[in-house]
Amino acid sequence: MVHPRTALSVNLNKVALVRNTRHLGIPSVTRAATLCLQAGAAGITVHPRPDERHIRAHDVHDLAAVLKAWPGREYNIEGNPFHNLMDFVRAVRPHQATFVPDSEGQFTSDHGWRFPDDAERLRPLIAECQALGVRVSLFMDAEAEQMAAAKAVGADRVELYTEPYAAAFGTPGQTEQLRRFAQASQAALDAGLAVNAGHDLNRDNLTPFLRTVPGVSEVSIGHALIADALELGYEATVVAYQRCIADAFA
Ligand SMILES: CC(=O)[C@@H](O)[C@H](O)COP(=O)(O)O
Ligand SMILES: NCC(=O)COP(=O)(O)O
């Protein structure tokens, strides 16, 4: 079942990471995508980093072919538009491009864009994506005062970087983080942006997040979901995450 309120996009970076440790082609990234889509995932996300530590260029094209067989499901490609992302956008025209301000060797994504600093250099690349029919989401820290500027630069959506919430989950800081994210999401919605969210979301912290943070259109989840799939399998794991989403709106 694809839940109508908040779409689940499965990030397959970590399947590729394991695959790359041998020259055997397993675990298959395309098979993971197919099994997750068959289980009801609304889409697939990849972050083809320049060093190809996990998702490689051929994966991006292989997955585009898989998604073509799934009308209504979305392909989201993340990356830094000043590095290699735009070449992938031009070549495969995904449904969504998520601009992430990562440096080339960065351990993982850990911050969003800053306005007004980044505005003028982002504007033409956002416009180019949209001219190609690709929706643009900007990876942003949960700062309400930054949302109007994200809209002004032309973005369709923001993706709230959820690691600070995930790190506070289960501690006294959880309430304050949820308030911060709810405020940032409402500010984005008020500015005319749609809201995505991602990074370190899992089966424990997802439902409370969606119950409290208004109007989340899509969550992209990879690390914890793939870890769960090692134990439960892709189908049961996607169903479990869809249940977490459904529980938030029950
Ligand atoms: C942008 C973001 O928060 C994640 O989607 C990112 O893809 C994580 O990258 P790694 O899987 O390389 O840690
Ligand atoms: N944009 C977040 C994403 O795609 C996956 O992040 P994570 O669940 O691997 O932390």
UniProtKB/TrEMBL annotation:
3-amino-2-oxopropyl phosphate binds at N11, R22, D200, G222, H223. GO terms for biological process: pyridoxine biosynthetic process. It is found in: Cytoplasm. 1-deoxy-D-xylulose 5-phosphate binds at R49, H54, T108. The keyword Membrane does not apply. The keyword Chloroplast does not apply. Its EC number is 2.6.99.2. Pfam families: PdxJ. GO terms for cellular component: cytosol. The active site is at H47, E78, H199. Keywords: Cytoplasm, Pyridoxine biosynthesis, Transferase. NCBIfam families: pdxJ, PRK05265.1-4. HAMAP family: PdxJ. This is Pyridoxine 5'-phosphate synthase. It comes from Hydrogenophaga intermedia. The lineage of its organism: Bacteria, Pseudomonadati, Pseudomonadota, Betaproteobacteria, Burkholderiales. The gene is pdxJ.
